[in-house]
Amino acid sequence: MKVYIDLIMIVNFIFDFILLSSVNYILRRNVKVIRLILSSLVGTVTLLILFINMSNIMLLSFKFLVSLVMVVIAFGFKDIKYMLKNILYFYLVSMLLGGGIEFLNNQFSYSNNGLVFTNNGLGISYGIVLILSLFMYFKYVKSFKDLKNHYSNYYRCRIYFSDENLVEVNAFLDTGNKLVDPYSNKSIILLHEDMLDRRDELRPLYVPYSSLNNHGLLTCYQALKIEIDGKCYDKFLVGVSHENFFIDGINCIINSQIMEGLR
Q1: What is the dihedral of CA 240, 250, 36, 76, to 10 degrees?
Q2: Is residue 66 within a helix (H) or strand (E), and if so which, with residue range?
Q3: What pLDDT digit, counting tens, does each position of 51-98 carry?
Q4: What is the rounded CA–CA span in Å between residue 145 and residue 52?
Q5: How far apart are CA 74 and CA 36, in angstroms?
Q6: Any residues with CB less than 8 A from the CB of 174 and at least 6 apart, and which?
Q7: Does the pTM of the predicted model rise above 0.70?
C-alpha cells in the first residue's frame, strides 16, 4: 500500500487548523490567525515522528505532549486553569470532528443487499458507539449553548492612553461593575497591572471606592478612548487591579455604561 506523506501532512494541517479555530471561536480566545497556523504546522511536522516504531505508551505520551505544545503556541499560557480548559476543549472538539469524519467514512463505505446493510463486518459494538455518540452530541450542543451565553460577554478591546500608547485586551462585560469616579462621574474599567507596560508615562489619579469587604483608594489613569467592535468611548478611567480576575483569559473588566455609550 502506498502512503503519500505530503498528502497526509496537508490533510493533518487542515484538520489541526479547523480544530484550533473551533476552540478559538467557542472559548472566544481572540488569538491571531498566525498563531493558529504556527500551532497547526507544529502538529503537522511532529506527525513525521509517528512513523518511528515506538510502544503504545510512548506514542500516547508523545501525542499528549504535542497537543500541549500546540495549545500553548495557539492560545498562550496565563495560568493552569486557563491551559487546562484549552486542552479540554481541544480534545472535546477533536473527538467531535474526528468522530464525524469516521461516521461519514463508514456511511459512504456501506454496501447493501436488499434491506441488509453491511460494512465489512458491522457489529453491535458500532450500534453502541453510535448511541453513545448521539448522547455526547446532544450534551455538547447543550454545553455549547451555555458557553455561547457566557462568552457573548467577551470582547476584544483596544485602550488608547495616547495615539502611540495603546494596549489590546480581552475584556469581560460585568453588569455588576458600577465603579464611577465620584468627582468626574466617569465610569471606571478595571485593567490588570501586567497590561500597563508604560505606566511611567501616565499621571495617576486616586479614586475612593467601597465594596462589600473592603474600601480604600483605587489607582486610576486617564485614557484617551476605548475601542470595542469598531466603536469608541472616551468618558472613563482605567483602574489598576493587582489581583487576577477569576474569569479565564480575561485581563480587563468593563461595565454596561461603557457599552451603552459607544459611538
Answers
A1: 70
A2: helix 56-75
A3: 677 777 887 788 889 889 999 999 998 888 888 989 998 888 888 776
A4: 42
A5: 5
A6: 153, 253, 254, 255
A7: no
